[in-house]
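Lecture notes, part 5. Sequence design as translation. It can be helpful to think of inverse folding as translation between two languages: the language of shapes and the language of residues. The source text, in structure tokens, appears below.
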């Protein structure tokens, strides 16, 4: 038996008797194999993605009646109760139990088969190494236990003897290898997660509604389960007295002082009760805490069912009842997993490479629709490969065979999400970016990069190969490897991204450059780990804050994407306004307003398209009421200028500007502009001066097919050169005119 860490020793000491019906433990986690069960120093997320108040109210409005008891602890979709390996309770509860149950429930397959079980150690071994288990489940997916060779640790890649994955204990654990294994993971994905506190009856009802029917989602066979964080160090477990519902079963009377363990809420029972104030009665309407009010902390009836990962010999065959009152007293919460339904990747990047110091390597994938560009327009971090892997060891590390594996690693990434809002109707490029730490002495080789196109062939035999192969990488390198793709003939998006390289920061009211790099240019650098942050070290200017971006030309702007700061809530924008302009002195009315949630998710705002070469984001508030503003990335959407309808444009002919020579007053000239349209369409006619400032809008309405002439009195303008611009949803045509008086 390995020596226990100090914390584990404290957890395994004898717990004193609390009452006549209190159970006595000489080992809190008795193990049938005489090995200790570890906690994994479970720490709740400091900035969890919370369910919005609007969503909570929407769920509550639809709740009618709920059953008094639900229990999925032993559902056919849940894997059998197991004993976690090492200190993997976070991934054991979220991946093994929650993720596995939810995806099996959706697919209607049993959780007893290895092909339908999901291992803890694929994510847990990377704990604290720049990618969370949720980020890996969203980006990489989770391989089944069959492909991982183990439903907790891997009998092929190791991890059995790891108690906690830090540098001293686990510097060399193994990584999964093989395209088919990583491809399997891509089909088993999480879409998102959300938290809700359980300190009010209303929020408890939201959890029960999830357990009943996934908040009305009929795609599942039965209701859902949720994640929990509990304080097991010092918890007091007692038996339910005789004569009461579920008498003899274990119930938690009190928790320890600090959350240290991840578990699963697998059901509830409104009938389970315990007489906490020993008055011989079970009540939910008496102030038993003595604080002068009656709330959940005073409830003696009702309990959640907690499914644990300490084996089926623990308490109620691996479960325990948790009274509702403890949810309030201990400020407890629930986490929901929303799995990605019926998903199959369309395009996959296949990579073969090695690197001898994996903790100094970061990978990112990208896409560009500008085939003349040398950098991607849009990128995504490759979670799992984010300066991860303890110790300066090869990528594959040490496997269960005890050998350090230095051979090349073969793996893959899903490219499908990168294509969202990108115009791929013409040739485009996918990218792999390999970055190494500046002063590392690591070396390696990218042997091959290719794209397998499953959208064209479900057998995966359509492969596009990178222009470069056998590319060396070493200390301080940043390598971009691109794969040219042919244009797609389907699913051409209505709105597409403008390249960030086509934008510059025109104005910002405040940026922090002393306490951190909070420069405004970070919002258009393609790196979500850098941020724009308003000043805070020397001074703290108040709201509103704004940033203006200028384009290299005028675009038909149709949307705005805001990526909040990823590593902290500080500065995340709450209330916002977005403006467009062709002249920074005239912004007009906002094209979009609203309130963004406190979330790490990308926020997309679409609006009625307008022509512009400047855009302004105004932050009116911060999610927590602070005066800062921060932003990781900004992307701008335009109406797709490349569509099949461009071959038959709406505006077919535009006449040259002509000046009416028959006006009676030489200082009252009349102008006439004629155009033809091939079909009914909305047409806007605008006049600009030589500097690009809009003078006026002559018309903006729907016209029928045919020729149209618009007359305009230009007596208020001096002589000079002007431009008029005709636009519709498909194109823009600009002509010069000379006005002489």
């Amino acid at each position: 038996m390995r020596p226990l860490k100090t914390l584990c020793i404290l957890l395994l000491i004898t717990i004193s008797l609390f009452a006549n019906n209190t159970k006595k433990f000489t080992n809190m986690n008795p193990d049938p194999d005489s090995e200790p069960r570890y906690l994994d120093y479970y720490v709740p997320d400091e900035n969890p993605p919370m369910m919005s108040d609007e969503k909570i109210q929407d769920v509550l409005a639809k709740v009618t009646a709920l059953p008094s008891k639900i229990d999925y602890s032993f559902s056919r979709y849940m894997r059998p109760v197991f004993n976690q390996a090492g200190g993997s309770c976070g991934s054991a509860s979220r991946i093994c139990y929650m993720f596995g149950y939810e995806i099996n429930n959706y697919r209607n397959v049993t959780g007893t088969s290895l092909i339908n079980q999901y291992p803890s150690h694929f994510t847990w071994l990377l704990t604290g190494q720049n990618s969370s288990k949720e980020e890996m489940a969203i980006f990489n997916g989770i391989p089944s236990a069959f492909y991982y060779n183990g439903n907790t640790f891997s009998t092929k890649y190791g991890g059995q003897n790891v108690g906690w994955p830090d540098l001293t204990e686990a510097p060399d654990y193994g990584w999964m290898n093989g395209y088919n294994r990583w491809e399997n993971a891509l089909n088993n994905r999480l879409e998102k997660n959300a938290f809700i506190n359980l300190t009010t009856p209303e929020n408890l009802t939201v959890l029960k509604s999830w357990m009943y029917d996934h908040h009305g989602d009929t795609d599942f066979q039965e209701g859902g389960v949720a994640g929990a964080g509990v304080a097991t160090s010092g918890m007091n477990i007692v038996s339910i007295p005789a004569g009461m519902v579920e008498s003899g079963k274990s119930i938690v009377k009190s928790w320890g002082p600090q959350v240290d363990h991840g578990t699963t809420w697998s059901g509830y029972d409104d009938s389970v009760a315990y007489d906490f104030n020993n008055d011989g009665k079970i009540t939910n309407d008496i102030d038993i805490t003595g604080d002068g009010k009656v709330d959940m902390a005073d409830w003696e009836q009702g309990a959640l069912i907690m499914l644990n990962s300490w084996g089926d010999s623990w308490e109620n065959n691996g479960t325990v009842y948790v009274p509702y009152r403890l949810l309030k007293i201990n400020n407890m919460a629930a986490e929901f997993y929303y799995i990605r339904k019926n998903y199959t990747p369309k395009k996959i990047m296949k990579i073969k490479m090695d690197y001898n110091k994996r903790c100094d390597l970061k990978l990112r994938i990208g896409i560009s629709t500008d085939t003349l560009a040398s950098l991607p327009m849009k990128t995504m971090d490759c979670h799992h490969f984010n300066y991860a892997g303890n110790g300066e060891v090869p990528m594959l590390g040490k496997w269960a065979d005890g050998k350090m594996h230095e051979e090349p690693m073969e793996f893959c990434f899903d490219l499908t999400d990168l294509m969202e809002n990108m115009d791929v109707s013409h040739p485009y490029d996918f990218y792999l970016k390999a970055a190494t730490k500046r002063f590392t002495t690591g070396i390696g080789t990218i042997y091959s990069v290719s794209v397998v196109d499953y959208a064209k062939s479900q057998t995966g035999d359509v492969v596009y190969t990178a222009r470069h192969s056998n590319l060396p990488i070493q200390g301080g390198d940043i390598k971009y490897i691109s794969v040219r793709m042919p244009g797609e003939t389907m699913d051409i998006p209505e709105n597409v991204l403008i390249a960030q390289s086509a934008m510059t920061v025109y104005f910002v009211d405040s940026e922090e450059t002393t306490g951190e790099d909070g420069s405004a240019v970070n919002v258009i650098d393609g790196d979500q780990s850098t941020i724009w942050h308003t000043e805070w070290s020397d001074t703290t200017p108040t709201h509103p804050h704004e940033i203006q971006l200028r384009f290299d030309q005028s675009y038909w702007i149709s949307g705005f994407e805001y990526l909040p700061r990823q590593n902290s809530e500080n500065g995340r924008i709450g209330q916002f306004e977005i403006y467009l302009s062709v002249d920074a002195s005239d912004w007009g009315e906002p094209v979009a307003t609203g309130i963004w949630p406190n979330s790490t998710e990308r926020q997309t705002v679409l609006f009625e398209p307008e022509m512009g070469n400047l855009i302004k984001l105004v932050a009116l508030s911060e999610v927590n009421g602070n005066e800062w503003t921060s932003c990781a990335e900004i992307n701008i959407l335009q109406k797709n200028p490349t569509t099949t309808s461009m071959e038959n444009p709406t505006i077919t002919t535009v006449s040259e500007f002509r000046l009416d020579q028959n006006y009676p007053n030489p200082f009252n000239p009349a102008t006439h502009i004629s155009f033809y349209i091939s079909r009914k369409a909305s047409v806007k006619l605008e006049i600009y001066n030589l500097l690009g400032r809009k003078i006026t809008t002559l018309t903006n309405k729907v016209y029928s097919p045919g020729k149209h002439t618009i007359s305009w009195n230009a007596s208020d303008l001096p002589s000079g050169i002007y431009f008029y611009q005709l636009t519709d949803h498909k194109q823009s045509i600009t002509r010069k005119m000379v006005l002489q008086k």
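The translated text above is only one of many valid answers, since several sequences can fold into similar shapes. The chain has nine helices and 35 strands.
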